[in-house]
Amino acid sequence: MATALQRFKLVFYVPPSAVAACKTAIFAAGAGRYPGPGGYTEVCFTTKGVGQFRPGNSANPHIGKVGELEDVEEVRVETLCVGRDVTKEAVEALKKAHPYEEPAYEVFKMEDF
């Protein structure tokens, strides 16, 4: 019996103007593909919200000014990554496509029941 690949959930936050570019990049890296007979691809869930940050003295912020608290509209994107290699490639693609100096993202290892 073949061992199933591990599943991970990639979650990231991005300004609305960069959502399409980030999704295109992670999907090209293999994120958002569900295993199984349906052949679903480019699967994700998005939620609008407000992010907050204060850039430090050595920051070069895409939005806001050093030392000033900033509230910005952002979109949370969640997607499935099947396999550790796909997950790593999706994160690297996200970092290249994302406009922020330090993109906020999380990777969660998922259980399969």
UniProtKB/TrEMBL annotation:
Keywords: Hydrolase. Coiled coil: none annotated. PROSITE patterns: PROKAR_LIPOPROTEIN. One of its GO terms (molecular function) is hydrolase activity. This is ATP phosphoribosyltransferase. It comes from Pterulicium gracile.
